[in-house]
From TrEMBL, chains A, B:
Reactions that this protein is recorded to catalyse: diphosphate + H2O + H(+)(in) = 2 phosphate + 2 H(+)(out)
A Pfam family the protein falls into: H_PPase
Quaternary structure note: Homodimer.
Protein name: K(+)-insensitive pyrophosphate-energized proton pump
Keyword terms of this UniProt record: Cell membrane, Hydrogen ion transport, Hydrolase, Ion transport, Magnesium, Membrane, Translocase, Transmembrane, Transmembrane helix, Transport
Its EC number(s): 7.1.3.1
Amino acid sequence: MTMLYVVIACGLLSVLYAIWATRSVLAADQGNARMQEIASAIREGAQAYLTRQYTTIAIVGIIVFIIAWWLLGASAAIGFLVGAVLSAAAGFIGMHVSVRANVRTAQASANSLAAGLDIAFKSGAITGLLVAGLALLGVSVYFWILTGPMGHGPTDRLVIDALVALGFGASLISIFARLGGGIFTKGADVGGDLVGKVEAGIPEDDPRNPATIADNVGDNVGDCAGMAADLFETYVVTVVATMVLASIFFTGEAAITLMLFPLVIGAVCVVTSIAGTFFVKLGTNNSIMGALYKGFWATALLSLIAIALVIVFWLGMGTEFQASDQTTFTGLDLLLCGVIGLAVTGLIIVITEYYTGVDYRPVRSISQASVTGHGTNVIQGLAVSLEATALPALVIIAGIIASFLLAGLFGIAIAVTTMLALAGMVVALDAFGPVTDNAGGIAEMSNLPPEVRQTTDALDAVGNTTKAVTKGYAIGSAGLGALVLFAAYTEDLKFFAANAQPGTFFDGVSVNFSLSNPYVVVGLLFGGLLPFLFGGLSMTAVGRAGSAIVEEVRRQFREKPGIMEGREKPDYGRAVDLLTRAAIREMIVPSLLPVLSPLVVFGIIYLIAGKNEAFASLGAMLLGVIVTGLFVAISMTAGGGAWDNAKKSFEDGFVDKDGTKHLKGSEAHKASVTGDTVGDPYKDTAGPAVNPMIKITNIIALLLLAVLAH
Amino acid sequence: MTMLYVVIACGLLSVLYAIWATRSVLAADQGNARMQEIASAIREGAQAYLTRQYTTIAIVGIIVFIIAWWLLGASAAIGFLVGAVLSAAAGFIGMHVSVRANVRTAQASANSLAAGLDIAFKSGAITGLLVAGLALLGVSVYFWILTGPMGHGPTDRLVIDALVALGFGASLISIFARLGGGIFTKGADVGGDLVGKVEAGIPEDDPRNPATIADNVGDNVGDCAGMAADLFETYVVTVVATMVLASIFFTGEAAITLMLFPLVIGAVCVVTSIAGTFFVKLGTNNSIMGALYKGFWATALLSLIAIALVIVFWLGMGTEFQASDQTTFTGLDLLLCGVIGLAVTGLIIVITEYYTGVDYRPVRSISQASVTGHGTNVIQGLAVSLEATALPALVIIAGIIASFLLAGLFGIAIAVTTMLALAGMVVALDAFGPVTDNAGGIAEMSNLPPEVRQTTDALDAVGNTTKAVTKGYAIGSAGLGALVLFAAYTEDLKFFAANAQPGTFFDGVSVNFSLSNPYVVVGLLFGGLLPFLFGGLSMTAVGRAGSAIVEEVRRQFREKPGIMEGREKPDYGRAVDLLTRAAIREMIVPSLLPVLSPLVVFGIIYLIAGKNEAFASLGAMLLGVIVTGLFVAISMTAGGGAWDNAKKSFEDGFVDKDGTKHLKGSEAHKASVTGDTVGDPYKDTAGPAVNPMIKITNIIALLLLAVLAH
């Protein structure tokens, strides 16, 4: 268990890095008074929203905490609390830095691209390393407290239940934060664009648009805080599921070693991620994407070496492990599974860049389709979004087969863990986006020279692709992790059934998960409908929030005719406040859908056909939600990114296949704006929220088993 | 086996009805010379397209025929031929009548709504009853030939394989016809609307638009012939799968009786469908939907009585049957399963009407969202399309559970069979749509008085909902039938494994279909990606065909400036010809996707992990394609219908929530046209083609088993 101290030390290292980087960011020049005024408006809006969001979630959280204490005891309830609080903290601190880095990035961009990139990326890296570091610390410290001072055995049910509850805490925050933040940011974006760009004919981030501060607030609460909560959850749930699997599959010393193994992978990768951040430097070709990729590939390579060293010196390359499902594998096999995890990550990045990058066929086909109008733009965008699911799915399928052949189900778990161990770096690339987006807005609103805006725009364009990449990565890990979560469920079920006292709930339970059992098909269909219904509800929510903003902005323009002439100041606060209330209100029902569905399905099938069939339907539901959720999420995030960049392709003039050049303001450009508007809630609200939705359904099912066994 | 003669007699009755109704339609007034000229242009275009389409399919068909003969022998190859030829015949004859009924409906509408409805519906009923009748005749006559004159036992593998091959023939035609017809019709629609309505500012069906004849041709080849082939296939495959299941589950006399039972249900429902057509009469309230519903509900009620009589007098209410999976049930249980099938149909109709009808929340929310622009219209449309999947899925889930509780897997099969037994009536309601759509076009182009157009528009508006209903019905039956097809696969597999000679392929095969087998998850994911990829490819195909039309029409306008002034005649033929070539070219690759995928998946997994895992992945793939396909198809067809009717709601002026009225030509109306354009390929190309795609994947898997056993 000494390795546990190493893990905790690595976790603390990430916190130290965050403190150092925060100081370095805060030391930078804040720019002129106008810039600071705008930045403080954004900061206040973001803090007000996040405080309100977390207050609302806290009410739900307290209720769940009490229920968890009552049903599962103190250690599970406290685990839930730890997961929830740390998830919220990662989001809150990330946003805290991000709303301070934005104005400094704008000011630095006035000096050079390299300086702008440096501050923006450092800000992103703080969020990234806090996500990975706090997740690691949360799991490892709580695991240490339970097994050390409190003296429980590492494989005790109490410990397992407490860790699962910790994952549940992270999941619950995550679904609300993803969805609430997503509705806020896209409500502002859709509404602001429609009434500003389309009706009033003013550019994005024009200070005359009353929704413009809300739009910038949204970048921070949605793309930064929401995304951080999402990845925090994905990280925690994957590590916990791998530990649960290790505790069930192995016995004795091997169980403890392999329970620690995912934590150790996470720990060394936190260190390599920190190292990787220093590789992000603009080369002589001034390629921003190139600079970011240098950081990513350095991290990937260093991680590979670090994991290999861990296996050589700690696990043993040739050490044989035998799982209770009769799979045997060596340390080398696990290393190869790690390589598979890294390869899946790399391939998903490459595929996502192909589908969302300006230079490739998919985005160009959408630009071309814009030439014939709004309708064909949307048709082609939808076609790309549907098609974009195929290759990532094939990569995931290949990853499942390869890691399963090497080391069985536990091999798949290690592949996903390794994939997610890079989260620090991947989140850094993503959280960099909202900072540059904000920096551009601040430059525009405070009338900085156009070169500054050009620099921030260049940084922002890269953000579109990195955002799509992170989402593909998060949902891809869910696809690959599907089997791990399902295995945790089935193995738990077997464990409880085998250890059931006569007369207790699990006595005589024997579940048939075969596809020829109709209750399995029923579960698959029921799980399959969740991402669709959830997507529909969240798209509607964004539409409603956007319409509310349109009406508010129209009202301000009508009542204060001086706004458009620059004589009167718009009431930015009202738009922020209106969206805050709308987002909080709209996030509740869709968020509860994945929380309550597993319980409802289990309850109904239990009443109709008894417990065996209820467990079968519930289990199949977990896979059903992944089978459709994977495709829904990838299609939405990739499609949205492609639409966004198709619009961007008109900014420098798009040359169509007949050689005609279409500039900004042309009919084709207007058609591309429609696609971008549609893509907004697709890629930033509905799509990414599917990922926590999948996890929470799985976690609820695991907790249900624990409750029934209690 | 005397019942088989009754079945054949009922099948012949439908042909007699079709002959009688055709005569009655052809006897009607064809209108003036201008109308006849236009109608003949549509007729020639449709015949030219269909001839070319079937010629192309014939090439694929002949290759498959030879392969089938070589691999499976003469009776299977001939079965394939029977299925293919009859499917093509149903589409061809339906279209043949439809392109003659259009002009007569236009002329009759000049007299009265009732007269227009009468001809249009009669034309639809011809297609409908030929679909059901020819499907029934094909299966029953070939079954009779095999078991009577040729002396094979009804449950012989040779007979089963021949019936499955018959289903395959129907499927293969269906996927090509659905997709080719869908690309043609929507390419014309999208392209024609964009360049006509949006750019040139001329109304739909304006004779100055060179794409207008192509648009009307498309209604016939896509919505009539394509849809007929699709439902023919659904009917045949369901009946055949139920017969296969009966032959495996039961032995002796019970096997023969229960193999005949689905045919008998089909037979009596053909008679009740014919009876139902006479209930379609305009009431005093002039409600067209009411008249159609009268016909549908009369058929449903009569069918229920007829099936009850069949069970009382032939099967026996109290007769007990015992399946080899230990399920026992009585005749009464089967009757109740039939009731469930009818209830599922009824509920899907009600739900589809809710989601696509002008008077309900979903469509009104899209109309309202159009007020704030193109973007919000599309967002809300997508939200409705996603949400619209939930209730139908729940109905299907309930249907599966209820019929399974009554009579096991065979009960589910009987529920689907009963559902599809109404196909004659349902197709009649649908095939009525393109006739009225064409009638409106002819009225417009030949300058008939506006009242005529009003009458045909009223008929056409109803067609939007009935079209959405038919698609929901077809895909719903696929969802409910999923288990039947999967059961046919697993039971076949068990049969071959149990009867394998040592050393043959099936020797020692024992497949684990449990969800905890990673190869099952791999299969689910692989199946899940097919509807997405297929949808993406077919949307792209429509976009490309539409863009080609836009360019062609722009060219004609440019080269013949007299067209817009009405001095020159556009070259309609070129647009038809261009689309014909485009549609045929574009349909090939997506159509081959579901045909080849099962073979590729089986082959790859076989090489990696051996036969057991290959059979597991292939089986799971069959369910995966249904789990995502069901939702993709419902969301596309319902969403498209809702967008279409949201556009229609502006034609009489849409009053938004602030009381402002938006008329045709307003900005809100233009936004609604964008949604309609997007919805076109969604609802008429990609969405409906998912249904034959699902079936063909399943049939190929069954055939693969037969080939491997051979």
